[in-house]
Amino acid sequence: MSQTSGYTLPYRSLGGLIGDEEIGVLQEVLTSGEPLSQGRWRERFEGAFSALLGVRHALSVTSGTVALEIAIRLLELAPGDEVITSPQTYQATVQALLGTGVHVRFCDVDADTLNIDPALLGAVATSRTRAIILVHYGGLPAAMNEIMKFARAHGILVVEDCAHALGALYEGRPPGALADIGCFSFHSSKTITTLGEGGMITFDRDDWAERVRRIRGNECDGVYRETGGRLTEVPKALYPGLAYTHDCLRLRAPGTNATMSEPAAAVGLVQLRRLAALSARRRRVAERIDAHLAAGATFRPQVTPAGSVHGHHLYTCFVRPGSGVDRDALVRALEERGVEVWLRYFPLHLLPEWRARGHGDGECPVAERAWFDEQLNLPCHPGMTDGELDRMLAVLDEAVAAVRPRSGTHVE
Ligand SMILES: *Cc1c(COP(=O)(O)O)cnc(C)c1O
């Protein structure tokens, strides 16, 4: 339970996420005398991650945001190109495109899942569409078969924002291995964490792996040609990067330092081993909320399509319009009773920076209706005890009763 939030039931908590094993491995790394950057822990974490996903490359970086920024660089977009994304995601998904000449088109979501509605892609895509950057909202895999079929037919690359999706499955396969690039976050609110901040970028292409290694390692992202030139007497290891062996034909962009530290990677490795248990606990919490809500008529659930396993980063449900319950009044009633509610996410196209680029009300009516009138995200994290869960469900019933009109002004 949070000591600082003032809520009896905080939206999220670190409880259950960090345990003795994480503290043990930190002790091991910190007392090993080995360098705290660019060592064997990072390699082991990346190796375990790529094996889990079944992809050729998993390269760690300092955050999910940086993973997405680098993914966008790999796409080599030009001014005038277009990218399709979801309005129902965290701003980091396409923030790197703000201030560029690349045009973002928001594809509205499916009302049952809050993932991109693949039936709308045809209307949103144009001849300039180069990429789809989608999110598996809340940990529920997007409709990848339909999206990939559309993308492949039109020569469009697909990036999965998997910040919520670790532990999820789509037809038996993990997100991050379902499209061209996967981007993960290990922020402390996510399924696993690497000391609060961290990220991973996943794909199969070897040429991209070379570019990501250069970008995250403070070298440049360029197009090079071997010079065939001879090294001097001094060993090559003493020259930076490709000095003396290559010419730079074209610079795409300078690199940066996005190296995950050894303590972070070591904790990530331990967390990955605990992933199944952490996911199982999330699932149990979500299933109990599902069962409780299904017994009443106030809420409609987020629908998990057949063949998908939900990662349960967020617990999402919707107030039924005919239930007589006003969503905003319900949120206030929950907050007054100590249950912290976050509505995730404010429709991205309505943020001021995107409105300044011409986006606005009515562009994604399904996402807008969900966020403004129906959507509710309840606390769901592995640290919740059965007692806390019982208490939350009791408070939810109480809050619904408190805001439901007493006179028969509605029909159920
Ligand atoms: C958390 C999150 C990110 C960013 O990850 P950070 O590690 O916090 O930078 C990106 N996209 C989504 C959907 C997220 O929830």
UniProtKB/TrEMBL annotation:
Its EC number is 2.6.1.-. InterPro entries: DegT/StrS_aminotransferase, PyrdxlP-dep_Trfase, PyrdxlP-dep_Trfase_major, PyrdxlP-dep_Trfase_small. GO terms for molecular function: transaminase activity. Its cofactor is pyridoxal 5'-phosphate. Keywords: Aminotransferase, Pyridoxal phosphate, Transferase. Pfam families: DegT_DnrJ_EryC1 (PF01041). Belongs to the DegT/DnrJ/EryC1 family. This is DegT/DnrJ/EryC1/StrS family aminotransferase. It comes from Actinomadura monticuli.
